[in-house]
Amino acid sequence: MPKVVYPLDSSKKFTDQKYVGHNRWHPDVPANVTVRPGDTFRVDCREWFDGAIHNDDSADDVRDAPLSTVHVLSGPFAVEGAQPGDLLIVDIVDVGPIPQEDSGPLAGQGWGYTGIFATQNGGGFLTEQFPDAYKVIWDFTGQKATSRHVPGVSFTGIVHPGLMGTAPSADLLSRWNRREQALIDTDPDRVPPLALPPLPQDAILGTLQGADLERAAAEAARTAPPRENGGNQDIKNFTKGSRVFYPVFVDGAKLSMGDLHFSQGDGEITFCGAIEMGGFIDLHVDLIKGGMETYGVSENAIFIPGNVDPRYERWLAFSGTSVTLDGEQRYLDSHLSYQRACLHAIDYLTKFGYSPEQAYMILGAAPIEGRLSGVVDIPNSCSTVYIPTGIFDFDVEPSASGPTRIDPGMGVPKSSF
Ligand code: ZN
């Protein structure tokens, strides 16, 4: 096992740990730990809500989830010798749930969760159809995930960090803030909001205190969106064996990570659509000096995906086009066509006895594949969503004899209101 350079004590809150991480992006967050090119090391990560979501049969905690506190990130890690213009090579050597024999109170200790967030508190990809809060608890047995809330399904985890990235420069941060505020200004009262401006409330910026904290918290970027520095990309293929090349914008690169997922479908569509958990990640870092210029990677990481995908050979795929549910034609709108493909899949799965919420949760959490199949055939883009048939313990393919009805069990817990 590599040296644990960033330990977390599961019994303590994020802010009471030996090293206090951060939940906003800012170049002035001081590095907690320094590593060298060529080092391999272990980092512990809290689940993104720092323990606010519980292993029970109520979704009230998801309804009330404190979005101002996320994501709690481990780091920043300074990489010796890294300078703006370099590419930081990050190998994901290993990644997994909290190593512990018994299941405990924290997500990652033998279990994890998926949430549908209420429109009033974050929303999701299909928030018009699913405006309320729901939660599913998944149990981990080795690599496998099953749920008392979604019977008839089990799948192999595709463990990955939802979020990893380097610190922005002051200049890059101010660009983010300007362009996101301009978008918000087009419809400032929208629910859910178009973007999330800096929010000093609940901002944690490592060891920054007092006036330094106050100044930085007023401009530090929220962690929800992916940006030029990587960030919350939620790429399910960042599994063990991945190699990521991050642009470096500040001295030391200041790498941070968190938001570990046991599994996720492409798009993480329920917003908290992955199986969220705390755990560990083993990383190896190296540098390509001047690599941003050499390889034309001036922004946005490039990567080599991991090599430990679950092996599913047969898929049932659903397609959608850029036509609204009301029948209005839109022009090559791939967001809409992916929504329509997902809604078709949900409609289909309900014929087997699942509730729409159960079907939505399966699409968010299981290793489903999403694709932009066609983006040029005016006026319709075509998106597709591929479900591995092997995740079901019954025959999910269409046949002349009709669908087998499963017992949906207790179903997906909904929040009280
Ligand atoms: Zn996540």
Automatic annotation (TrEMBL):
Name of the protein in its database record: Formamidase
The organism of origin for this protein: Blastococcus aggregatus
GO molecular function terms listed in the Swiss-Prot or TrEMBL record: hydrolase activity, acting on carbon-nitrogen (but not peptide) bonds, in linear amides
Gene3D superfamilies, sorted: Acetamidase/Formamidase-like domains
NCBIfam families for the chain: FormamaseFmdA
